[in-house]
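Incident log, entry 3
Record: Tripartite tricarboxylate transporter substrate binding protein (343 residues)
Problem: checksum mismatch between cached and fresh output.
Input:
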Amino acid sequence: MKKLIPILFMNIIVIFTILAGCSVQNNTTESNAAKTKGTSSGNYPNRQIELVVPFAAGGGVDLAARAVADYLSKEWGQPVVVVNKTGGGGIVGAQYALLESKPDGYTVLMNNNSSTTMYEAGTTQPILTAKSHQFAARVAESPLVYAVKSDAPWKDLKEFTEWVKENPEQLTWASVGPADFSSFGVAEWLDSVGVDYTKTQMVSSEGASDSAAKVAGGHVILAVHNAGEVYSLVESGKLKVLAVQGSERSPLYPDVPTTEELGFPNLSVSWWTGISLPKDTPKDIVKKWEAAIEKMQQDKQFQAQLEKIYLQPGYLNSSDFTKKVQEEVEWYTELAEKTGIRK
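Fresh output:
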């Protein structure tokens, strides 16, 4: 009997040790579950969100981002702060948001053709591709316009094109990078009229507002941007628009002919901006952004804000947005290889 007591005592200790371990394990599991829940849409967002704009302040992406940030700050009850990170034709900011930041939904990219489809198509070894993004929703769009200084001698794009055919080496145009929105707009137009894109000269700029200012000041001949980005300088008499790309006239420029009216039927480059998150961001957070942007598009105040900054609602859900991006990558890659943009 005396021999059994120590054995029983040791067994009791072992049992208590095992039970204590189970308790610790359960607590750890609960703690990990709580952490996981903290990165899901259940309580997201619960702190400030950084909305990264990879272009300079004052351009279409920046203005759209500020409208989104204003709406979502009120909708979610957490501050959404716009941060401009410029450089590399939009790639410095995009890389920061998609590759260098945690995929937790608190650093989000306000993207654009230039920093997505055009960059990938124009670069043989891109740092970012469409696979680097989770495309949550497209927010806004706008047609491309061709703008020159107000006292330029050309009446419309047709006259301007004839001059360019005879003087390709004299054509200067502003762009934030060699494979951005302006570059592809110019390349597609020149290719359609048989002008060698590589004979023209790109002048680097910090963004649309800088490009437009360079043209208005007589330092560059052509600005190719979205309709709203040059509107204020057109209204002030410093720029004039030679054509609006597409088949429908812009309400901003009702007297300006479209490219189709002027005999350029196959020009397709247009401008858009939307929301991207890093590829490893939890799906439910991406879905929360998608749902919020869809709801935002119906908000009267947001619609008024878009109108104020001369952009059009352009909502696409995550699936349709992703499909649109993939189609653009294919076409822009073909165009980039054909015209010499791709390096």
